[in-house]
Amino acid sequence: MNDQDRRSMPLFSISIVKKLTELTARQIRYYEEQGLIHPARSTGNQRLFSFNDVDRLLEIKNLLDRGINLAGIKHIILEDQKAKQKNDEQRNGLSDKELRKILKNELYQAGKMGKSNLRQGDLSRFFH
Hints:
By secondary structure, the protein is mostly helical. The protein is 63% helix and 3% strand.
């Protein structure tokens, strides 16, 4: 399990989140209604918050303390999400399948016409 999966696990009840963030239950429910957080629900329909939800609530609280209204907070959070998504797409530009195909072609091309490649020895064990 990676760190992102751990941070996304719904663990905390609203009473614990209230203590961690110093927000009221009404404020937390309001931010959920506004689509700023998305807590999971237990089988008994109880809200369960993740570390990411708590971080988001603390970010909202900080922005409110700086005098930014809810519309501004929504805009900031939306822009942050878009930037993160764009970074993830750039970082993960090639799928594993595409990378494997490129490396396999590179390996086969290296043996033709007397060419050699530094990766040839490293990669050959994976493609035979």
